[in-house]
Structures are given as structure tokens and as C-alpha cells.
Amino acid sequence: MLDAIRAAGTISRVGLISVTGFTAPTISNLVRKLIDEGLVVETGHAESTGGKRRVLLRLNHTSRYAVGVCLGQGVMTYVLTDLTGVVVARISRPGVGAEAPATVVTRIAAEIPTLVDSVGVDRARLVGVGLVFPGPLTGRGVAGLNPELRHWREFPLGAALEQATDLPVVLDNDATAAALGEHWAGGFGTASAAAALYMGSGLGAGLVIDGITYRGPSGNAGELGHVCVDADGPRCWCGARGCVEAVAGPAAVVAAGRADAGLAGALGLTTGTGPAAVARDFAAIGRAARRGQRRSLALCERSARYVAAAARTLANVMDLEVIVLTGPGFAVAGSVYLPVLRQELHTVFSRSAHAVDVRLSRSAATASAVGAAALVLESELVPFHRGLRVSESLDGEFAPLPGSAR
Amino acid sequence: MSTTSAVGLVLARAPRLLGAEPFFMEFISGIEERLAEHGRSVLLHIVADPAAEIAAYRRWAQLRLAEAVVLVNPTAGDPRPAVLRELGLPVVVAGEPDGDAPAVRRDDVGSVRAAVAHLAGLGHRRIARISGPDTLRHTRTRTAALLAAAGPAGIDAVVLTGDYSEESGAALTARLLRDGDPPSAIIYDNDLMAVGGLDVAGELGLTVPRDLSLLAWDDSSLCRLSAPQLTTMSLDVHDFGELVAGSVLALLDGAPVRERWCPTETVIVRQTTAPPPGGLE
């Protein structure tokens, strides 16, 4: 219901009946409940069609807020969104580095009220926290196996953050969250099969099928970075050979850039290991490529050809209509990758049936944090669209008012 | 420095300025990157109107949430610098300051001259410019510079006021082209409006640049991804952000903050400017 109103912008009760398939009395009851909770307001009348004029409904933007956090090794991004998923505030803080998970949880729990206070929003209007990180997820919804985050493997991140913030917490991987955020922002248009290609410290993808994010049984669907593009290629950290992330991901681009002494000197590339240094150097190479600097352009275009091959595989398997490039990597270098991907996706098998549209996200730099906020809004306010909720499911059909017993 | 303090930046998302958002996202990423090297962050707050912007400054001062503020979109008769002074919030102005506040300036006069010289050199004698909102100081500076440069060069210049959105670029371009005596070249104050203009020119059956030259501002991905690729002024928005961060860092260190200037922009010639129909006069 809320999702239908959000997607429509404004809609009448009659419109809701046709969109949701619920009966008129059900719609009438649900709408009354939403209005009582302050989530929905009536907003004038639709054009008269001869009979009784229909009252239009819309979401009450400022009735609820959500926090989205993207936990990264190099940088942590926090956003605060309103009920419609529109960003009201954001801040980036240093990444988790080698810090102990419990310390990071304390830090996040301290940052959230500051962010909320900075925009003058009543903390009681906060629905919850969406927390996303570079996947993959393990079975218990615990943060991942990504090599630099190995010490997080058995840490009950969601539960610890719920306890520290006294707010519901929803977890997901960054690429899936970015896809959800793109869906909420309308970036997939009317496509029934769409993917967000996410370039952060690695490479991933999130899938939105028929308006719903597809996670797979363990939340790991769309692991595009581990599509094989060279059976005899280098060994990836995941154990397999020739993964596109190992062959052509940001770390591979940076390694090639650093190996070129002239380029490394010209761009001030570092020798730092760690994801923060890699992200900084990838940004430097991407920006130089954008300016047309020849060697940087060659590095990015080589990477783009492999990423394009992996994207073509995904498009063929999923019969995709739209691919959106997003994440901090594409925020910098997306305009260099885009033409290469467009070219490659002209050869997709299903192209005779429909085009595959490749676009840049309008909020690539913070997409996963924005998506994380959408994730918790969806999980708390829209039944049946749950992410990987860590606590007990909510009692009742809609979220209770914040502050009431959960 | 408290672990929760930050450099504040409020973006008033007046409906008239929606199209300026891609610019500010790139600008802020430049500030963030430079500040992060010093362990500092940008707190970005997006508000609906100027009153909410001023309320945010008051809240930040009271709760000590911002150690400094970056003020964007300076306007004529801007009320904000006085409020910030009263609150004791250190400020760096991105653009033309009101009074002696530390500022990072853009050479709008020099850049407009370069744009006019490029088009005049190709032989254009009727030039239009679709500007940003004329409440902004730099819009007024560019307008004055355009009129000053056009006269002596024997150029007939006209300015229409847009709002940075693709839609306004398209609508105003259509208005110009349907006029009885349309310009042979159009300058846009940003990239989005130029993209809108390029689309509309195609819809009206014109071939760019053979029939009409277009010159965009703010070199961004959009300018390189359009077909044909947009010729544009070279402002590197990311670098502008880094310069602002440099002034902020100096301010917070208590060092004297010199006025910083973005490099005067040059024309990056791509595929949308050419001699006017009929060639050089």
C-alpha cells in the first residue's frame, strides 16, 4: 500500500484498488489507518471525471525518517532520508580500517543521533537503520568474507547495532541496496528486469525483478565480481580463477597504474595497500581518464571491456532491460565505462526482442547508503518486502509508531 | 576537534535550483576528498527554502555541530553572511563574497570573454545565452561581462534566464529557435540546460553544429556523453571543491586565508561549435 502510494506520488483510493487488487473496504480501512498514523495525507482532488471527485492521497514526507549507513573500509557514508527515500542530510566519516567491530558499532551509534539532530528532526520519527557493506553475506546475516573484513565474520553486527541504537536494523550488501535505492528514485523506469552494477572497492550487482529486489536464499544474488572472464586468469581472493574483479576490478586497475612509473608519478599514486588507498588512486586514474589522459584512459577502457563482458553475461542470463552504473567507482569513472558497456550490450542475445539501456546513476557516489535507508523504510513499513531483518518480525501489519513497544 | 563536528554545507533545494544538483554533488566530493586527508568531514543538509537554511545554521551553532560553513550560491543582498557572523560560525564563500569573507572565486569575467572570443572567432554575430537564476551573483556578473564583450566585437547578444534544469534549457532554446531571427550560437550556464537545448535543436530539425552552435558550461560527464559531444567551458568542478577545502582548512588552522581563484576557464572544443550557416562573414 505505502509502496503503491510512494511509487504513484499521488493516487486516489479507487486507484489503489486497481493497483493493489484489494477490495474497496480493505483499502478504505488501510488508508484510514495510515492517515491515523500520520504516514499518509489527503492532498486535494483529482480532475473530475463526471462523478464524485476523487480525493488524492500522498505520503507525508516528514512523518518518518530513516538512516542509511554504508560501512566501507575506506569511508563510512551516512544518509538521513525522509519517508519517500529523499536525502535530507549526509555525512562521510573515516572507514572501518582494521578497527574492532564493537568499536565501529559504538561509533555508528554515536553518529546517528548527531545526524538526526543536525537537521532538527525529532528522534522519535526515526523508523530504523539500514546498514550495508561490501558483501557477501553469511547465512546468519553477519558481515562478510571479503578479505579485509575477515575479522567481522562471526560478529553479530545487526544485533549489536540494534542494541546500541535501540532501533530496528536491517542488513544487506551494498550492491543490492544500491539497486533498491535506484528503484525508489525511479532510475529503472518501467523495466521489469533491471540491475545496478556497483563499483566500490570491488564489483557487484543488485537485481530488481518486477519491482522487487532479488536477493537469493543467502542474500548473495548478483555477485557480478565473481563472474569468470578468463578461465586461466589470476586467482581471485574468493578461491576461483579469472573473476572479473580480480582481472579488471578497481584494485587491478590501480595495480596496473602503480606499475607504470611515469603515470604513478604524474598522478601522485601511492604505494598504500588497503581499500582507502586503492579507492583514492582509482579516483585519480578515473579522473585523469575523464580528462582524456591517454594512459589512464587505456587502463580504464581495458577494465571496462571486461566489466562489459560480465555485464553482457548478466543481461543474457536475466533478460535485463536496464543496467545502471553506480557506486563510488562509477561516480568517478562512469562516463569512461559507459560507452564501452553500451557498445558491448548491443551484442546481447535478447537484443532482437528489446534494447538493453545502460545509464549512469544520478546519485552514484552515495547510492548504497541511500538504498540502505530505503531498505529499512521498506522493511519497517511495507510488509512482505523484508530485507534481512535481524530481530523478530513486527507484530501487526504495519510498523508500530516509533516509541511504542516493539 | 570533536569527533562529531564537521564542515557544514546547506543546499537549498528551491525548485528553481534542482538542476544545479549534479554540479554540487561533484563540488562536494572535491571538498570531501581534501578534508578527509585531514580527518574532517562535510555535513550536507538539503533544505526546501532559504528560511530553512538559516534555521540550520542557528541549530548547528547552538549544538556545536559545525566548526565552519561553506556558503554556496551567493545572491545579491544575501542575508546569510550576517547571520553566520552573528552566530560566530566561520565561513568560506564559494563564489563572490559579500564584504571581506574568505572566498574562492571563479573568474567569470575572463571566462565569458573566452567564450565570446571563441564564438566570435568562428564568425557568429548573433549570440544568445541561457543563464542560471538571476538572483545569483555570478549569473549577474556573467551577464554584465557578456554584454560588455559583445558590443565592441560587433555582436548582438541576448540573455534569457533559466533555472539550470534540462527542461528550462529545452524550453528556452525552443523559444529562441522559433523566433523570427534566431541566434546562430547559444551559450548555456551549465551542462544540463545545454543537453536540453541539444535535444530540442534536433527535434526542430536542426543539425548541430552545422545549423546552430552550442556552448555548455561546467565540464561534466554529460558533456562527453551527449551526441554530438558538447563543446564546453573548462571549469573543473571537483578542483573548485578542493580549492574551497583548502581555504576551509586554513581557516580552521587559524591561518590567514588568502583569496583563492579557480583558473580562468578555457573553451574545450568538442563537436557542437562551428562557423555559422553561410560561413565566415
UniProtKB/TrEMBL annotation, chain A:
<keyword id="KW-0418">Kinase</keyword>
<dbReference type="InterPro" id="IPR043129">
    <property type="entry name" value="ATPase_NBD"/>
</dbReference>
<dbReference type="InterPro" id="IPR036388">
    <property type="entry name" value="WH-like_DNA-bd_sf"/>
</dbReference>
<dbReference type="GO" id="GO:0016301">
    <property type="term" value="F:kinase activity"/>
</dbReference>
<comment type="similarity">
    <text>Belongs to the ROK (NagC/XylR) family.</text>
</comment>
<dbReference type="InterPro" id="IPR036390">
    <property type="entry name" value="WH_DNA-bd_sf"/>
</dbReference>
<dbReference type="InterPro" id="IPR000600">
    <property type="entry name" value="ROK"/>
</dbReference>
<dbReference type="Pfam" id="PF00480">
    <property type="entry name" value="ROK"/>
</dbReference>
<protein>
    <submittedName>
        <fullName>Sugar kinase of the NBD/HSP70 family, may contain an N-terminal HTH domain</fullName>
    </submittedName>
</protein>
<keyword id="KW-0808">Transferase</keyword>
<dbReference type="InterPro" id="IPR049874">
    <property type="entry name" value="ROK_cs"/>
</dbReference>
UniProtKB/TrEMBL annotation, chain B:
<dbReference type="InterPro" id="IPR028082">
    <property type="entry name" value="Peripla_BP_I"/>
</dbReference>
<dbReference type="GO" id="GO:0000976">
    <property type="term" value="F:transcription cis-regulatory region binding"/>
</dbReference>
<keyword id="KW-0238">DNA-binding</keyword>
<dbReference type="InterPro" id="IPR046335">
    <property type="entry name" value="LacI/GalR-like_sensor"/>
</dbReference>
<keyword id="KW-0804">Transcription</keyword>
<protein>
    <submittedName>
        <fullName>Transcriptional regulator, LacI family</fullName>
    </submittedName>
</protein>
<dbReference type="GO" id="GO:0003700">
    <property type="term" value="F:DNA-binding transcription factor activity"/>
</dbReference>
<keyword id="KW-0805">Transcription regulation</keyword>
<dbReference type="Pfam" id="PF13377">
    <property type="entry name" value="Peripla_BP_3"/>
</dbReference>
<feature type="domain" description="Transcriptional regulator LacI/GalR-like sensor">
    <location>
        <begin position="116"/>
        <end position="273"/>
    </location>
</feature>
